[in-house]
Amino acid sequence: MNAETTSASGTGPAAPEAPGPVTGEIARPVARDVAGAGGVAQPAAAESGGRAAADVANPVRLRIPAIGVSTGVSALRLDAKGQLVAPTSFTRVGWNKAGPEPGEKGVAVIAGHVDSKTGPAVFYRLRELRKGAKIHVDRADGSTVTFVVGRLARYPKSRIPDKQVYGTAKGAELRLITCGGTFDRSRNSYRDNVIVFAR
Question: What is the pTM of this model?
């Protein structure tokens, strides 16, 4: 099942859009051809290097009823190494603004913290998501795009399968990313990333 967009009224499909203890380390490499350690890879918008023809509105809210998430979305930038800068908030998620918006053709990436020094963070229960769960992304134009979880995986940060996680997509896809696995006190970071694949 592919991502489904509804209008602001929620009455049906939206009209097509006009063209137009955690550290800052969330996932592995980024920038289309760069492979480094740490950070979140930037998904390629399209093989041709451009955006999909129909640009959609930016995400403003993420809702995942199955795990009780309803939170704001902030835009995240890439650092000088091409890695996604971690969200500054532990209660909000961040979207990779260098990649596609959720609902636009390609792989959109939303990252969030699993915990903080004071307790669970926004994606603490992300590992509980199962195939078929719905993920709703509300956008600035009042529309909502809904994705369905296909699978969940955990990878060591040093061995993220970039093509599977951040590669090109024929339609609109979404990846939710947080930290997982054991905590490495010497690096003040988790060793793995938990990644949800949805479309």
Answer: 0.76
